[in-house]
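**Polypeptide and fold**
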Amino acid sequence: MSEVAILAYGAGNVASVQFALERLGATVRLTADPAAVADAERLILPGVGAAGYAMSRLRDLSLIEPIRAFPRPLLGVCLGQQLLFETSDEGGSVDLLGLIPGQVRPLTPGRGLPVPHMGWSRLSRLRDDPLLDGVEDGAWAYFVHGFVCPDGPATLARADYGGPVPAVVRAGNRWGCQFHPERSAAAGARILNNFLELPA
């Protein structure tokens, strides 16, 4: 049975992620302890709200360096994916974790589409990855976000919302989902299960 730590740092909705993982048979630990983070078998970084507030919470809890140094599978969810990048335009300019190159910018979809992007969009797979095993091209995922990560070499799958939205990213042992896998029905459950099966 896989063990996973979820960062409970006051800027993420951990309960729904915890429930989804426990339904898949995982042993889940909620933690904001740097030592527990360093020792975790695998780590999930959730996030809702503003990037600046999330980074201040991570800084106040001395979690930034343990996350940067984490050598095993790490999954950022929603804002958690954005935090993996270098900087964000949200609230001016915010330094992020710097694990993936690039700048997070406001979503500007055009075509009269509302911001934030709230609802279901299809995933377009760009390349194979263990996190996406069994997830069909065109699978639906549930998004809630007003900022978007840069589209580049780290992008594994995109959504379309008046332009490309990097929906799944990877750099080494760090993955991110801009959507909420815990709210994305069969495709989301498959992604979480794949994460639990990644070699730790």
In short: The chain has a mean pLDDT of 97. The radius of gyration is 15 Å. The chain has one domain: 3-197.
